[in-house]
Amino acid sequence: MANRAGTLALPNDLVDITALLDAYYDVSPDLNDPGQRVAFGTSGHRGSSLKASFNEKHIAAITQAIVEYRAGQGIEGPLFLAKDTHALSEPSTNTALEVLAANGVQVLVDARHGYTPTPSASHAILKYNAGRAENDPGRADGIIVTPSHNPPSDGGFKYNPPHGGPADTDATGWIANRANELLEAGLSGVKRVPLADALAADSTGQFDFLSSYVDDLPQVLDLDAIRNAGVRIGADPMGGASVDYWGEIGERHHLDLTVVNPTVDPQWAFMTLDWDEKIRMDCSSPFAMASLIQKVSQGANYDIATGNDADADRHGIVTPDGGLMNPNHYLSVAIDYLYRHRTGWRPDTVVGKTLVSSSMIDRVADGLGKKLVEVPVGFKWFVPGLLSGQGAFGGEESAGASFVKRDGGVWTTDKDGILLCLLASEIRAVTGRSPSELYGELTAKYGSPSYARIDAAASREQKAKLGKLSAEDVTATELAGEPITAKLTEAPGNGAKIGGLKVTTENAWFAARPSGTEDVYKIYAESFKGDDHLKQVQAEAKALVDSVIA
């Protein structure tokens, strides 16, 4: 049977929303099953009500745990409560509000009764906390109800502390452990009131997330240049939380901007299937973005076309001359452009990237005369730099990035897909060339890398061993015909454990990390010597890793 990736979803691909919502309320998790307990990954707790991994009891317990955590941290300011368009986000938000109100927490919900992108929530937290000391009890924090780009059957729930970005492992570990204790106690420690009472509570207020974010955009982008150049923008919210934002951005800032598809559908029936024939709102995937790519290729009148995932923390950039840009390619262009054009940034700014992002970024940073700071996977590692302004840009290969304002002040400390999409239009306006053209110029200067990620089978025990490797465990001295120049189990930028292994040579590298959800490990690899050399790197990487985790 032919693979249907990139083709429109069929009725049997769609989730049963009624069954999904019924399961949220009716299904109780089996706490003897590790997959049904609360577990925070790099972006909060995720799961599906149909699999008993994301249900009402989970959310009640997690919210109570967050209440207790913030009290222990001396956080007494408002909590910004945001949600995306996934079907499970609405009931989860209601459950959270019932618990927060019962505990007397001041909560601010969207004044428009709409959806809130992750970057808008981060921006709101930071704006409220501006000028407050780190130990000020009046600091705000937030909960964002989203599983990001995950399929329609999934729900997600994440906590952003007063720094506005993803919570670190100390916080999420405490919250998860306490939530599981509450679940084991049958929620006896959870305070809760009916939704009507929560909505009417004096502690529940409203906040205009959209205006706060959209009106401040000129602080971080040159929207005048976009408008004056007449850049024609096609923005596809992909059924996500940015749906109302894009129209307002065009209207308020007088841009030639078309919202390509304003439809919000919890089944995402308008989506094309991803590589594995699942509906996934991944704006970095050519399969999930097939509809927008086709519009551009068939002559849609856009100089820049963009897509965002469900919570708009990721970006997808489509150009008439290059199609959908590889996220690594666009990050390289964005970094090269920004550090050459942001004269208000600190002179000692550094470039931040995750260790599985392209080495093209290393070469661009070197060409700019900027120090590169390479950190483990997870956007939380960029938070300190974005707050101080020294780490003016932080980006990861999965199409997530943010950068500071034009004056060097903090904009968001979470990924901002809207920002990166609009930057593509600024680049087009200021340089007169598309980001894909500019990437071609970078490859002419620095070389053209081949990059790919593959999965390799591994047992739970082997994954655990991979996550605890030391550099001394690797005895190989050569990779794909080149001497090994580094064996890393800690990120060079901050010394943090990477939970895996990275091996580098002069023209290639690979990184191996265990999957948190499947019995596989992931091999990221890149070569500046072509596709054949990349395949050699991948093969030798798998053999090397298998030998040390056997």
Can you give a write-up of this model?
- By secondary structure, this protein is α/β, with parallel strands linked by helices.
- It has 3 domains: 195 residues, Alpha-D-Glucose-1,6-Bisphosphate, Chain A, domain 3, CATH 3.40.120.10; 219 residues, Alpha-D-Glucose-1,6-Bisphosphate, subunit A, domain 3 (Alpha-D-Glucose-1,6-Bisphosphate, Chain A, domain 3, 3-Layer(aba) Sandwich), CATH 3.40.120.10; 100 residues, TATA-Binding Protein (2-Layer Sandwich).
- The strands form 5 sheets. It has a 7-stranded mixed β-sheet with strand order 1-2-6-5-3-4-7, with helices on both faces. A 5-stranded mixed β-sheet has the order 9-8-10-11-12, sandwiched between helices.
- A hairpin with an 8-residue loop joins β5 and β6.
- α4 packs across α7 and α8 crosses α14.
- The longest helix has 19 residues.
- The chain is globular.
- It starts with 16 loop residues before the first helix and ends with a helix.
- The mean pLDDT is 96.
Structural class: alpha/beta
General form: globular
Span of the ends, CA to CA:
36 Å
* Strand tally: 23
Beta-strand percentage range: 15-25%
Strand order of the largest sheet: 1-2-6-5-3-4-7
Average pLDDT number? 96
**Biggest sheet architecture:** 7 strands, mixed
CATH H-level superfamily title of the largest domain: Alpha-D-Glucose-1,6-Bisphosphate, subunit A, domain 3
The helix tally amounts to 17
Rounded to the nearest angstrom, the radius of gyration is: 23 Å
